Amino acid sequence: MVNFDANLGGHDRFWWANSDGSASTETYDEPSEARLYPGSWAPARFEGVGGGLVARNWQILGPFGGPGAEKFSWNPQGDDKKKVEEMYEAREFPPDNGVVDFSATFTGPLTEGWWPKPPPFKWTPAKIADLDMRVPAGGGAQVWYGATWVHAPKDTEVEIEFLSHVQTFVRWRWNNELVPIRTQDYGNTPINTHARSHKRKMVLKEGWNQVMWRAYCVGYAPLRAGIIVHADEATLWTLKFSGKPQ
Fold it and tell me: Can you tell me the distance from the alpha carbon of 110 to that of 121, in angstroms, rounded to the nearest whole number?
């Protein structure tokens, strides 16, 4: 059980937890503050890194669609799900070259679809969702991209848990090489009922490594993707993560 509070500027006192409202927020009467407030104590759990390290910060880019995407919707129904898959598996977009170009601006027919015509867009910083280990992006029948970077002091073999989402199709690039993961390779995870994951041995090269995904979904939007790096704790403590290229 833990307890702490903060007092900003001497006049704005608040508590990390105040479940029953009994903890005083008074800031002008010190004697009345010198007491115990059972309601301000709450359980906390502290863990090491043995469960793996989550990539929390990403760059995302989208939406992409193109001719034919105007026929679909946020939540494709029936045969449209298969049509979305067939169209996007056959279609290429500029980021499919694996290059994260922060100077590039994307606009035009390939960025259009059932959604309102978007203004020109670039790579945008994003974080994983609350109570999740994946970054959310976009709606159904849209192609989105995500990228993050992991640093290793030397060539290091790790196990990567690639995280996906139900009714989502993801292509992964590891240092710009395609990772051969099929949709059927993903299994259920304890994160939540819509999360999917696949573990695979990978090598982090000495220096910064780029991890990139290309994804679209045909239901349960927004799609979500992410990675967890697994290794012994001594190895994990040597790694660095960044949501932008170094």
Answer: 12
Q: Residue 32's pLDDT is what?
A: 63
Backbone φ, ψ for residue 159 (5° rounding): -110, 125
Contact 101/145 with Cβ under 8 angstroms?
A: no
The DSSP line for 25-87 is ---S-HHHHSS--GGG-B------STT-EE--EEEEEEEE--TTGGG--SS--TTHHHHHHHH
Of the candidate ranges 25-29, 157-161, 240-244, the one whose mean pLDDT is the lowest: 25-29
Q: Among 228, 48, 17, which residue's Cα sits nearest to residue 128?
A: 228
Residues in the chain: 246
Give the Cα separation of 221 and 60 in Å (integer): 16
- Report the SS3 class of residue 108: coil
* Cα-based angle 231, 241, 222 (whole degrees, multiple of 5): 95
Phi and psi at 75, nearest 5°, equal -135, 80
The closest of 55, 45, 60, 43 to 2, measured between CA atoms, is 43
